[in-house]
Amino acid sequence: MFRFLTLFVAAFAVAALLGRTPLFKVPSAISYLIFGLLLKLPALHLTPMDAWWLRRLGDLGLLFLMFLSGMEIDVHLLFRKRDDHREGTSPAVIGTMMFCATLLFSFVCCASLAHFAPDGANPYMLSLLFATTSLGVVLPVLEETGYLHRPLGQAILYSAVIADFMTMLLVSLLLGAHKSEDPWQVWLTLAIVPIALGVGLSLEKLRQVPAAGRLLGQAMERTRATIALVAIFAILAEATGSEPILGAFLAGVIVRGLKFAHKPLVATYSYGVGYAVFVPMFFVATGYAMPIAQLHAVRALYWLPVFAVLAFTVKLLPALTLLRFHGKRQAWAAGFLLSSRLSLVAAAAQLAVNAHLLPEIWAASTILVSIISSLIGPLAWAILAPQLPPVDSR
């Protein structure tokens, strides 16, 4: 316990220090990844028991991270009518077109690269890693710069939401297909989606019953119920052959979509528990598990620039769809911002390595490229997109 508490305090100290550098602030997730890499140093050698605890806490942190990512998705956006008809094509249509084009470009490029993989790689899994977008990065940037409720921001948001959700769904389906060749078992992995829909509709009906509200109690009790919902969905996903991270993700979508008393407090408590305790341990465990030593090999070094170019190209080319509606600078800015990807890439890459769908060298290179994109994307957006005053969404 003493070693674990020392590790936790040291991780917080490193993240706080890197996040307050004068010239360039490092995001906390990347700071924890860096700390995980530092744990590989001989002076900070972890015992097998320490490494076991770190992996288990990392697994729990991954579930919380996917749950909180699901809470970033507002399902009502998919059914909301557009208020301004003078802007031409709907932002939902533009965002969908951008993601479909990204997925197509990504698959074509990754199918070509898979032939050069050192140990073989699944082109479908690799293309999904490059097609995704970190909604947790995109949403705060759009809100801080005043674009969230404007047509350009809505198009970017739709594309990020669809990319986050569809990537999570397709990764789970691909892993299920890899585990079992039975078509029925493969489709059973998607059973968690209609289950989540049924649970969401049932909770929405139950919300209208006064006795149910009294039974759930105040904010603290509702937070416990929320965490229990995450555990239940993770268990259901595992039982259907899907990935528990998909169940946790869908639980977050349900919580975000429901309207209930004390919801802001429940969200605050959930973010506090997740981002303060468990999610950092996931990134520390991911950094510790990265085969960074293999990147010194000559055969691994040249994949970093290749993956970096690919990561930005598959987002910048589809973003040219915005040229007609928003101009050149905004289109390039959107492409760079949508290139930000970290949390889902780190999780899916580790799962792909465990399932032997991706070589460890490529997984480590992909995670490093996702770190680079999460740093460059928001910075390029800030340079290219003009600052706007925030728009009141009420």
Automatic annotation (TrEMBL):
GO term, biological process aspect, one: proton transmembrane transport
Taxonomic classification: Bacteria, Bacillati, Bacillota, Bacilli, Bacillales
Cited Pfam families: Na_H_Exchanger
UniProt record similarity statement: Belongs to the monovalent cation:proton antiporter 2 (CPA2) transporter (TC 2.A.37) family.
Keywords: Antiport, Ion transport, Membrane, Transmembrane, Transmembrane helix, Transport
First-listed, main subcellular location of the protein, grouped into a coarse class: membrane
Record carries keyword Transcription: no
Membrane-spanning residues: 60-79, 91-117, 123-143, 155-178, 184-203, 223-239, 269-290, 302-323, 335-355, 361-384
Gene3D superfamilies to which the protein is assigned, alphabetical: 1.20.1530.20
Locations listed in the record: Membrane
Protein name, per record: Kef-type K+ transport system, membrane component KefB
Top-rank taxon, per record: Bacteria
Topology of the protein relative to the lipid bilayer: Multi-pass membrane protein
Domain Cation/H+ exchanger transmembrane: 15-379
An example Gene Ontology molecular-function term: antiporter activity
GO CC annotation: membrane
